[in-house]
Amino acid sequence: MTPLLDIRDWRLAFDGFEGRAQVLDGINLTVMPGETIGIVGETGCGKSVLARSVARLVDMPPGRILGGSIHFDGQDVMAMNGAALARLRGHGIAMIFQDPMTYLNPVFSIGAQMVDVIRAHDRASGQRPRNSAAARKKAADLLGSMRLPEPAGMLDRYPHELSGGMRQRVLIAMALIGTPRLLIADEPTTALDVTIQAQVLRLIAELVAMHALTLMLISHDLGVIGALCRRVVVMYAGTIVEDGEATTVFANPRHPYTRGLLAAVPDLEKPQHRAQPIPGQIPNLLSPPSGCRFHPRCALAVEQCTRDKPVMRDVAGRSVACHLAEHA
Amino acid sequence: MWRYVARRVALTGLMLFGLICITFTVSNIAPSDPAALAAGPDATRDMVATIRREYGLDRPLPEQFIRYVTGVVQGDLGRSIVSTRPVTQDLARFFPATLELVVLSMLLGVGLGVPLGMMSAVLKNTAPDHLTRFAAVSLVALPAFWFGILLQLFFSVWLEWLPTSGRLEVATAPPPFVTGMYLFDSLFAGQFNTFSQALAHAALPALVLSFPCLASILRVNRAEMIEVLSADYITAARAHGIARLRVICVHALRNAMLPTLAMIGLRWGWMLGSTVLVETVFDWPGIGLYAVSSAIAGDFKPVMGVTLLIGLNFMVINLIVDLLYGVLDPRLRNAP
Ligand SMILES: Nc1ncnc2c1ncn2[C@@H]1O[C@H](COP(=O)(O)OP(=O)(O)O)[C@@H](O)[C@H]1O
Ligand code: SF4
Ligand SMILES: [Mg+2]
């Protein structure tokens, strides 16, 4: 079976006034159709940039590709022409984002924005774009299936008139217009109230099951990932450090950073165990640490860690990038 | 929406009253005696007093003010002491000429400034962007009269493509009066020959007048487009598969047009008040020349009239800009 997404040794940097920040440093990730994979890591570790790379949404400049490749469904994403890119975006890959307010255009009505996307997909799939009445009908149907009240009336409203939860549902509806195969959700609930978070997560889970979507869920919240994803990928400072079944990784983490992340989650059942934040700070990517990028913060670090970059190895039923994975 | 409109209109009325107060005050504290000026250097005291009485200049200030305001409301701006015609009649003759120039310049400024600003933003920090911005800065820095004369020499004297001055050839009769703007009136009357002649006459002065306006519209539009193009909703639109051209020209532009529109409004008011240099260079019979020659003669009613007219125009444009804001930005419609 061809992987749906195949990222090989992906290296990406941003050029700025202060120099070049190595934001993604040799990412290898293969996603098979139907997988639900969660990407976790501290803020700034490159999760969003990775997600955007996949749909070729990183602006160059300031972005700069230093090497590697991304294939979607066997096709080289970086080599796509305009038409192929239009089919890829929305049709192959759809994205939902963190802050539903800023990701909706403030000056267009919900209906206008949805109709625009619907017609763009008609064009991308080689049909004549349907007329606006038909497009509005489809938009209202989609909003209805997101369990938004009064979907037809919703079309004439503007983003600022909706609540955060409603806006995120609108964005999810827009993402599903092109019947995508891969849904990338970049911190979809981080900006929402706790009660709304649960509803939106349930909606995403239902849609993934109903449309047999492949899901790539990005979050810094392990609980969110545990609830929706079978596989988890842990990122640290632009690298993947651990990758495996969520149950395996959570029950028995092998990378010191993963262990640190898990220890930082407050455990409600054992309140006497205080949550332990990981000591130290995320590294400056303008001059990343040598060898293992985690070594300045790692309690186990040995001399080799400052010298050699650890590669991903299969240890205890998952992949880990740590020199001491066997011993830990 | 209607509350928004009503508020803007009410505010405009209030500002207009303020403007009337200001023009009246300024003309009354100016250190010159219009009656003496009108009477001429050889006039006797009696003659000056007669004129003063005739123009109501001997009345107490509050009374003069009330007479002035009631006059303005009824469309009476007083008489020009120099030309002895009612100021409104003079304005009706000179204002359309200026307005024609300003409208044409604005069309040029917006028609070139907005697309060039968009192009500059999309090609940010490339050669076309640097070139466009350099040209824009130069256009603002060059003094209008110097640049006007230069263009005149080049296009009119050397190439002989365009006439040097005036609104029409001397032998050509103006088109039948509808708006007083020859370009419009000649089209309205179907006199295409007159139209092309009027256009040839207006081309250079409109171009010169439009440069500062073009440059600032370009600058604002470029800055806004750059800002908007990095907004999250633009990333989202691209992620949804909307074509690049449509993202730029529809999704981004409508957001970037809001501050651009404010600049257009400002520039409109500024242009109306600064046509005098261009009118002088190209001998264009507009209100700029009228106001300046009246001011030099110490003739205040025309100056007050022109000030009022320019101010009124400024307010009307601001009102239109505010209303367009409401159309473009739904967030403002529900604003109190
Ligand atoms: N457009 C950009 N220009 C420069 N640097 C960027 C840009 N986008 C992201 N970065 C940098 O890339 C790094 C990773 O960012 P991001 O992927 O957003 O992290 P996160 O894991 O929180 O989603 C950060 O250091 C950020 O500053
Ligand atoms: S490689 Fe060394 S520094 Fe890196 S996580 Fe493993 S032990 Fe720590
Ligand atoms: Mg992020």
Description:
The complex is a heterodimer of chains A (328) and B (336). Chain A is of the alpha/beta class and 328 residues long. Chain A has a domain at 249-328. In chain A, 33% of the residues lie in helices and 23% in strands. Chain A contains 11 helices and 12 strands. Chain A has helices at 47-54, 82-92, 110-124, 132-145, 151-154, 164-176, 194-210, 222-228, 246-251, 256-263, 303-307; strands at 5-16, 19-31, 36-40, 63-72, 75-76, 93-96, 182-186, 214-219, 231-236, 239-245, 313-315, 318-320. In chain A, the strands form 2 sheets. Chain A has an 8-stranded mixed β-sheet, with helices on both faces. A 4-stranded antiparallel β-sheet of chain A has the order 2-1-4-5, covered by helices on one side. In chain A, a hairpin with a 2-residue loop joins strand 11 and strand 12. In chain A, helix 3 (110-124) crosses helix 4. The radius of gyration of chain A is 21 Å and the shape is globular. Chain B is built from 15 helices and no strands. The mean pLDDT of chain B is 84. Chain B has one domain: MetI-like fold (Orthogonal Bundle), CATH 1.10.3720.10. Chain B is mainly α and 336 residues long. The radius of gyration of chain B is 24 Å and the shape is globular. In chain B, 76% of the residues lie in helices and 0% in strands. The longest helix of chain B has 38 residues, at 192-229. The A-B interface holds A 52, 55, 57, 59, 82, 86-91, 94-95, 97, 99, 102-109, 116-117, 120-121, 123-124, 158, 160-161, 171, 174-175, 177-178 and B 230-233, 235-244, 246, 250-251, 254-255, 258, 328-331, 334.
